[in-house]
Design a protein that fits this description.
The complex is a heterodimer. By secondary structure, chain A is α+β, with helices and mostly antiparallel strands. Helices cover about 40% and strands about 30% of the residues of chain A. Chain A is globular, with a radius of gyration of 14 Å. Classes of the chains: A alpha+beta, B mainly beta. Chain B: One of its GO terms (cellular component) is cytosol.
Amino acid sequence: MAEVEETLKRIQSHKGVIGTMVVNAEGIPIRTTLDNSTTVQYAGLLHQLTVKARSTVRDIDPQNDLTFLRIRSKKHEIMVAPDKEYLLIVIQNPCE
Amino acid sequence: MVGIASPPLSSALEAQGRRSPRSAQARQGGAISMATRVQPRQLCRAGSAGAEALATGGAASAEGPGRPGPLQDETLGVASVPSQWRGVQGIRRETRSCQTASIATAEKAAQTRKHVDAEVQTEAPVPVSVPPTSLHDDPRLAAFLRRVEAMVIRELNKNWQSHAFDGFEVNWTEQQPTVTCLHTLGYPPAQGQGLHVTSVSWNTTGSVVACAYGRLDDGDWSTLKSFVCAWNLDRRGLNPQQPSAVVEVPSAVMCLAFHPTQPSHVAGGLYSGEVLVWDVSNPEDPLLWRTGLTDDTHTDPVYQVVWLPEPRHSHRFQVLSVATDGKVLLWQGVGAGQLQLTDGFALVVQQLPRNAKLKKPPRGETEVGATAVAFSSFDPRLFVLGTEGGFPLKCSLAAEEAALTRMPSSVPLRAPAQLTFSPHGGPIYSVSCSPFHRNLFLSAGTDGHIHLYSMLQAQPLASLQLSHKYLFAVRWSPVRPLVFAAASGEGDVQLFDLQKSSQKPTVSIKQTQDESPVYCLEFNRQQTQLLAAGDAEGTVKVWQLSTEFTEQGPRETEDLEQLAAEVAT
């Protein structure tokens, strides 16, 4: 559907964004702007990390829940927006 | 009265014939004449006392011990000793016989079963791929994206403007503050002959460093025996003066290169123009392949050898050799230890691209001697040659034009040059292509300058003077895009970080005490903090670099791009 593609295009064209992908609840990528092998790697690893992060937050406080996950590394920043059925992963190279 | 009739003569003769000790008649005392041999036979009438005495003399003595009788022959019984010689040790013989039980035999037949060929084949794994878009997912996906889009965009914006992490760096590894010398390796017999280290090479696992001994300042043919030594740095009990493998070579070795995948195969180029491949893990017979001295081999010293993947079978490799006779040759190992020429290029002055002004070559010389080669990491067919004339050449393995050379060769030689860069002030000894940028390469020559070139233009982007003497080697760092190292004739290894300063070296490591030149250096690609350098004293020093040379900073690749984009107009 056009709306999905347009939204992803808007996110992808933002300043410094290297790649965008959408992953479903099982960790299988549904949409991506990167090549296959990189996508599969990011999807698998970040899905596991998100599950772990969510359980960490809820263990500390059962009333709380994970809303956003950011990983900052030397080379870029990975942002994960979690949901019940999907994950949106965006990789950005911030200006330094 | 003596009237005994003497027995008739016959009886006397009989008595004579008989040898009986006594005769009854003698006892009788009669007139018996006992005739013996001794005595003449004398028949005498009985009654003569003498005869009687004679006759009965022996008998009388036999009868009793009276008076000894005269000698008489007697016949005694046979005295015999029964022989005991064989009697006691008699061999007892018994006859016995034995026989094995009869062999039982039986007939049996065996036969292979029938067999059937079956093939098994695994299915190629289906690569996990992004499944194609499916319509029924979209409404929920669209709703999800609508929900998160605003938040994501907000975060992206914040990130772009944030200074929260400016200058924030995390130390994950222990910081190495200075450059230290880990090992000083040498081979005393080679050092005793005054040989220089002409080339060092790390193997594919990064644990073995090999060096070649030869001389770089001899101008004439030398029959000096030289060595290729290898040290395994990961082995316990490493003795710096005793290499773990030594290969004796009949001529000076000018260059070395380890095989990209086999940890113990190393190729070397000799002063005589030959190219050899050794297996340093086999001490008895290390020589694997050689080119021999045929029409195809180089006629001048081989200055550099490089391993290249074969065009069709990328797991097999061939050797490329570069020599000052102007030829660039590709060799393939075929059976029986022979390296065979598969492809070749020749550099001829007339065929060089005329875009840069070159000095007129001396009359009669048409070959351009090549002294260094470096392959681009982005395009496997593109390579840069450093020449004796001081100008680097951009060349391609796919060049088609035939070379106008008179040198004999079994394979047609081609002219590889596509672009001539502007020259140094003297011959080039080393070139190195950047592993991070497809267009940048460095060249170092005898004028003591380093030139940074871009493949797109003939003029260098930057020219740095590092030394007042020759520069023998230059290498880009495999981990930091802006760092390179150079070996100088003044005995030091200079490390440049273009991010910090483009004018002077960041670190200058003094390798030799008496300013004898450092001839070669190589970074270790597996253990990126190690750098090996060989000098004219015959020692190889393994330097451990500080972390500032091994850890990539945040924006280095971009800075490199920026540098490359400074194309002078």
